[in-house]
Model the fold of this input.
Amino acid sequence: MRMLDDSVPLPCSLAMSSPCRRALRSFALAVAWTASASVTTHAELRLPAIFSDNAVLQQGREIPIWGWCDVGETVTVDFRGQSYATVSKNGRWLIKLPKQRSGLPEKLVVRGTSESLTRTNILVGEVWVCSGQSNMEWPLSKSEDPQPAIDAASTKPLRLFTVAKSMAATPADDVNGRWELCNAKTAAGFSAVAYYFGVDLQRALNVPVGLIHTSWGGSPAEVWVREEVLAADPDFKRNILDPYPEKKRRFQESVAAWEKEVADLKAQGRQPTRGRPWGDWAPSQLYNGMIYPLIPYAIAGAIWYQGESNASRAHEYGRLFPTLIQNWRSDWGQGDFPFLAVQLAPWDKNKKRSVEEITATPTDSDWAELREAQLLATRVLPKVGMAVITDVGDKDDIHPIKKRPVGVRLALAARAIAYGDRITYSGPQFRSMRLSKGKAILSFNHVGGGLQVRGKSLTGFQVCGTNREWYWADARIDGRRVVVSHPKVTEPVAVRYGWLDNPVVNLFNVDGLPASPFRTDNFPMVTAPKN
Done:
């Protein structure tokens, strides 16, 4: 039997400001499980919900097992014929199992002084957190042609854990949920994107895959970031944290007015004419309720589908999204684990417009700017990938039902970034522009086997000259580059591609992955592009 101390690793340092790093260190010290002021004594031997029957433990890294018991009680964890023990401090204990390999189902037994807990059918494999807003939450049963996937679900060596929705003003110690076997019933209600990601990843790795789904429709990014991290950044503090108390006060007033209105109407024998008002999301509330309690469960990485609720603040998202990634990585204490995002799908806020109507309007686009902000995170942080889905959106629905390609592309990114497979995992991404003889010559990363047009000719490119008048450009593939021009733009200075809420674009690589929208400028758009 090995005796282990009851310590927790401090977060790794982030590439951010000194005040933010100091805030992180302060937080780590404040919530360390050895701190007597922050932990309540629990007499009952207890495990978090994430350690239920049917759980998947992460292979190839230390596995933290933790829980609660009486103060000073000796706790032993038995797994695969080995025992590991510690003495609890302040009612909470932590044991780290050494690295494990995938294998047959096992029992996990936790023993205290007078009682024990047994978890059965435990697997070791790959564990991924799947988070975001409604497009991550979207169930398999409501995706495109779901029945074949649902019918085959029981054959998949996946385990599924859905975190129950929970808002919390301060970090919670546990979530509601349990690990489920993958079958027709559990898969149908599970995240479609996460399910298809898990299926393709498991097929490639040939080990069990555990998926922890923790998302909430409509949630903005700041509710998934710890408050101390937001407070350490002057801009986030001013624009996100400081306005919230006043927003909360106004919301409470509106609720009180609505309640009075309902009471008055009922006294008159009449029915209310409007529903209960909804308030703003509180910063950090979903991090507190749905992320923090999962830490430090050993994971391979995270997939993320969110951004629609931040599109009106795209410039801010360019810093907020990397901050979220750094926050999670730091608090998990597993280094720079892979973080894979989905770029926003095409969508037209003014529904039912034709393509001609869309392309005839000025193209300053908050959705295009949000896509740009998402792409930025892949360039400023290590091990961040992105699935581009310009070809599977629905201009009339913010929830496109084609979820399988999304999950498949995330799995490609995971295979390359997390597991080192030498594959083409991304569509073309703009790298550089060279101007020559009235033409803009564009180079790309992630060309793979070459560039490809889906259709007769390339669409979605705009070009402007020194007068900043934009034109829908002629574009053609020239080897591994794209050449852009227009007869009325003799001296091009900037190019944009797919710069619309609902871009109609068709540049791919031959591996079948679409190019990310981009711009080479930051000019304001005043008039619509001309033909």
Q: What stands out?
A: The chain has two domains: 2-226+284-417, 429-519. The longest strand covers residues 116-132. The mean pLDDT is 91. The CA atoms of residues 306 and 439 lie 36 Å apart.
